[in-house]
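Objective 1.3, modelling of assemblies. Example input:
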Amino acid sequence: MSKYPSEPLKCWNKAKELRNKFYKNFSDAKDKGGIRWMGSAWAFDAVPAGLGEDVWCITGEPYGATCAFNRPVSAKFLEAAENFGFARDLCSYMRNYWGSILTNQYALGGEFPRADFAWSQHICCSHAKWYQNACELEGGNVPLFAVDVGAGACPPFEPEMYEHRVRYVADQLLDGIEWMQKVTGREYNDELFFEAAWNDIRSTNKWANICLLNMAVPAPLDEKSIYSFYVFGTLQKSNPEFADLYDELYDEVKDRVDRGIAAVANEQARVMTDTQPPWGFLKIYRYLESWGAVSIGSLYTFGLEGMWLYDEEKNDLRPRPIPAKRPETREEACMMLADWHLSKPEYQHFYHPDYKTKMMDAIAKNWKCDGIILHYNRGCEGLSMGIAENRLGLLERGNKVMTYEGNMGDEHEFDEQATINRIDIFMESMGLKRPAG
Amino acid sequence: MITAGIDCGAKNTKTIIMKDGEIIGKASVLTGFDQAKAVNKSLEGALKEAGVSRDDIERIGGTGSGKNAIEIADNKVNDIKAMAKAANYFFPNSRTVADVGAEEGRAVKIDEQGNVMDFAINEKCAAGAGAFIEAMARALEVDLEEMGPLSLKSDKEIPMNAQCAIFAESEVVGLIHAKTEKRDISKAIHDAMASRIVSMIRRVGVNKDVVMIGGVGHNPGFVKAMKRELKLENLYVPDAPEYGAAVGAAVVAAKEA
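Predicted structure (tokens):
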């Protein structure tokens, strides 16, 4: 008999429809006389919104994950990228993306839709080269603008000269607006920009609040489901429909908490993970559930797009409150967005692994985790940076930690059976009984 | 109470028979393709050596990569738990255990009861496992049993950088072509492998006393290389290290009776 009641999420189908619509909008943009842009999931996507209501985007990381989920398609894309001469140890999302351009195959069906311009950001070495090469592969005449966000960690980690660092990023956004007008020949609409900036802040704040609800026992969400929803922040966080979906999801998850609805009906233990999973093998999360373990999320799913503040004294993470008022000038909107996004939890570890260890430990303690599973993800140099040090730091803070090797987007580097074996060992060491069968 | 512990490993299947905590019989056979057959054969051999019958066995514990083939087991434990319990059985003061088997190297941090505190397993690479020494012995055209004693005759330090058995073989071939003495190459191979295993042990922490189980514990060259790399005077190796996991399975079987 199940320990807790469980039921599927009601807004699941709506989420599916919105995701499909997003990718279709990008491929059909030209039929509507619209504009397409490509860029990182961390790009300031509210900024191109000022070009008009017929501007559609594709963001590389979730697209790479979509490719990886379909293993035969991914194998084809990876092979094409390798045949072109790209090394196998590069970011696997990036290789899937390039392979998709090279084979002229859109993972959602049809030919790969070419972008009119690239609008991205630089935080890791892969982002810096991703769209430079993509622009060349798409014909060589696609203009690229990348915002350097490598401005240092936010308070409380590195409070020195923080205002200047925000200004540094905001000034680039202002330059970017001028550049966009030049390359598209369009007039910029500040009202649309303000609206999009507010939606960005609204959705990334609400996502953090949704994740906060997962402190409840039993957890209302499991991480495999979380993946299906966190993705909207990576697709286009300034999208009003996505911000509205998060409002709806929040209400539903809150209701689940109030009624004691569990994501995993036999929840006996709680774990958290880290970085992107091996997308072609999400069944390992279901395997965890067969042991009665629910993965409540991770700093990655909580803070890749969700906005939080770390409280060093309390060793706690809490959603960053939204600003008191909407932006009213272009400069105000750029400053607000720069400040908001520089505090992104997943940016901080680029400056010191200890910052990430602290935030992960805060999740482990406050979300009542019995163990932590770290993915030595060979497919992402940026987010894998410092994981071995995070492991040591988490062990020192009294957490039980397991590691496994894999790759988020290249199935060649994931050993399913060895990982299952490790999970068995870890679950047993956490005192759980082996599932029957 | 008489219990049996069966370790169905990647290369060999080992069984030990234990009576009231004392080992009274053991046997090892090649696992081959038919794991169930190997399990029965090794059990028969161990029963014969112990001088007891199948009916005398009260409980059977199974472990190893082929543990699912041990249908006669009353309980099955994972390799890590089995090696932790074995180390605690042989050397109760042990807090760190290394297991170097044919296909995998592992390191475990344990508490005073032999419970697992942390563990590390070598990733998709044979350079930290017994199969690595076997492959290198073939490249050197030396019997596997001679590899360890041969390495003890060398005092040279030749670095081998490859982290992969395939690339390491290329390095060995390069050394052969450079007319390097076999004993020096053998020592370089053992040093490289010890370096890999010790880096894994360091991941869980080098806590006194360090115990080594697994078939490679028979290799004096490797044991010496491990001591050198760990900077330890003593590395505790039981008499029949390849039976370590089987002993652990028998200990767990007795406890869970």
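The mean pLDDT of chain A is 95.
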